[in-house]
Amino acid sequence: xxxxxxxxxxxxxxxxxxxxxxxxxxxxxxxxxxxxxxxxxxxxxxxxxxxxxxxxxxxxxxxxxxxxxxxxxxxxxxxxxxxxxxxxxxxxxxxxxxxxxxxxxxxxxxxxxxxxxxxxxxxxxxxxxxxxxxxxxxxxxxxxxxxxxxxxxxxxxxxxxxxxxxxxxxxxxxxxxxxxxxxx
Amino acid sequence: xxxxxxxxxxxxxxxxxxxxxxxxxxxxxxxxxxxxxxxxxxxxxxxxxxxxxxxxxxxxxxxxxxxxxxxxxxxxxxxxxxxxxxxxxxxxxxxxxxxxx
Lengths: 184, 101
What we know:
The complex is a heterodimer. Chain A contains eight helices and no strands. The relative contact order of chain A is 0.05. Chain A is extended. Chain A has helices spanning 3-24, 28-48, 52-77, 93-115, 122-128, 141-152, 154-175, 179-183. By secondary structure, chain A is mainly alpha-helical. The longest helix of chain A has 26 residues, at 52-77. Chain B has helices spanning 5-25, 29-54, 58-88. In chain B, 53% of the residues are buried. Chain B has three helices and no strands. By secondary structure, chain B is mainly alpha-helical. Chains A and B meet through helix 1, helix 2, helix 3, helix 4 and helix 5 of A and helix 1, helix 2 and helix 3 of B.
């Protein structure tokens, strides 16, 4: 067993175990912490797959920004434990959900195992493009990414700023207390 | 010997299915939201695996843009959950069956 396969198996086991932890823990705090482990193991996957800049961005954006927001809201909302322990209205929900999910996993794995393959000319087409080569001679990983982002994908990158402005405005509008309530 | 593309795709399918089970089974909207993040990241893993297999950077760009959209989505989603909790004083997804104010 080579080192590559050993590393892949260890990270895959970590990712799947922490993913199961996200949906299995009763306390939402433990779910959030388990999701952080899952996101970090995906960053390790990206390192194995030669995506160093994306691995760093995954750690910074997800584990650094998004999960802090999650933990903040979880601690803010779960202050009273009684609200979390409500009665189960749909008794068959858990069983049917798990069965449907397992069927979905089996079908997806089967189809990926049988039918997922790369067309023979796709690799040649990908390396024809000047800005989208992973191993362009004499350029580092981040430099390749930056060249692709700012030359081939400049317009999507600029549209992203509009999405972020819309999200900020939406959060401000939703987070503000309504005027009728604040007057009295 | 390198790890094949299919093994990455199958790990990604398993993670996506865990997210699906989480959305179907759990009743805490925060945990459902985390399961959605799990599914987003599973798809990101397929993008990275295909980018590595094809020798192209396009998959990285997709992952980068999806990271940005996920950050925006989390901001708006958590704001909605906090707003619902502020008015309803409960966070059971089965009780939130009316979407009027």
